[in-house]
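User: Could you check the structure of this?
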Amino acid sequence: MLGPPIMLARPALSGGGRDVGILILPDWIVDLFARYGYAVVFAGVFLENTGLPVPGETALLAGAALAHFGRLELPAVIATAIAAAILATISGF
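Assistant: Sure, the predicted structure tokens are below.
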């Protein structure tokens, strides 16, 4: 379940991002996680562990950051990443 929208500490940046305290997330990342949430974490980690040059660690860090701000649940983000990594490793054999 998604939480309330991320509140801005300052006005939107000129580069098209959202400033949430110290962390600055581009609008497209926030929109991607708002629509697909845990599926983005799963896909990023899964594809990276299959050997494709996909930023899976970045997806995982973004998921953890959004969990910090209440948009996702941290235990579910961790479980999703573990499941994706295990399934990708198994599929490689």
